[in-house]
Amino acid sequence: MQVSVELQSVRSLHRKIVPMLKQNLYHVFTLLVGLGLFACSSIDNAEPKSELEQRAQSGDIDAEYQLGRQYAASGLSQEPQAIYWLCRAAKEGHVPAQLELAMFYAEDAKTGDNTKGDGSRLSTWGNAYFWYTAAASQGSEKALTGRDDVAANMDEGEIMEVKRKATRWQQAVCVKP
What we know:
Shape: globular
Number of helices: 8
Strand content: under 5%
Distance between the termini: 75 Å
CATH architecture of the largest domain: Alpha Horseshoe
CATH class of the largest domain: Mainly Alpha
Largest sheet: none
């Protein structure tokens, strides 16, 4: 008798839960398929790295910027390549590349990752300030805000040192990994 009651309870529970699970699984599946299609479409629209790299190596500033962004999207193992190509575009005056580099360095400084540049605290915050200043000198309002945020983490001596260097941002050295 007890087994019969438990079996009925299980069947009743099954009738209630299974439709809910099916409905939720349908939504989850739809979401995953949608995300997969979105990811595939963004990859399909990206220029293959080999073609983009050829253009970048020939000095195409926009290609340098796009290649840097592609490397940045590839993950941490590609970060040195991303910084190199963004730097090349940035030193040629490409404001979006300057902003991207500044944000790269600022994020690293905020998380305590001082492995960029010479590994010093000033290097990471200083690089962020440097590239924000370069973009700001070309009229970027976003760069002014970013530079102010970075400056709040630096002392006056650090800021003065970077300001002195920032007037010569076109002479920045981009180290190929």
